[in-house]
Amino acid sequence: MKVGLFIPCFVNELYPHVAMATLELLEGYGVDVAYPMEQSCCGQPLANNGDSSGACEAALRFTGVFKDFDYVVAPSGSCVSHVTHHYPWYIADNADFQRLQPRVFEIVEFLQDVLKVEKLPKPVHFPHKVSIHQSCHGLRELHHASPSELMIPYQSRLERILQLVDGIEIGLPERRDECCGFGGTFSVDEADVSVAMGRDRVAQHEATGAEYIVGADPSCLMHMGGIIRHNGRTIRPLHVVEILTGRGGAA
Where is the Cysteine-rich domain (predicted)? Predict the structure, then answer.
């Protein structure tokens, strides 16, 4: 298979190590990966701010860049859910997008649903306690876990894949799927509310006794990471691929 690596714009600028860990993980499973240099933002910020014309242009650009790949994989649940769940608002009738839509995956989805991995490419030892953060887009649009409001049996993609790591201890905050307060432009439009929600969420993760907050969406980790640094907390945010590749700090 030929996989197109989609790296969201803010990951490219602020978290390139997450992009490199994603590439390393895919190549570790023998996947042929290409990074199209002409890729750009998926258009989610434009859509969130009501710029339908700009969001449509971004959707068409994304589709044109990635249409010929067998799969498209990204380390961001929110960006993937925007492509798979919200592009139809703009380009539902586009034949290239119709073919592409079911082939766009968030990295954990891809590992579990396409590659069906049962072990990591190389042994990883991470003797630390982590608290899993379920991001809203990943939770409710990509089905990363069972939303508590549905009152159905609990499952968690992140928990299952982290169990492949030797020495790790996995915890969950008391309210396991509460929002961190980022919400993209919400954090700008309603900064005080966003920060208050983020402080509460960090405190919930700290209460588990974890050393790290682990998630699959860098935007949420970015938001909580800023609050952690500003308030001098010791818990650290990590993207799941950083742990799966052994890049997760001083293990």
Answer: 3-83, 130-224
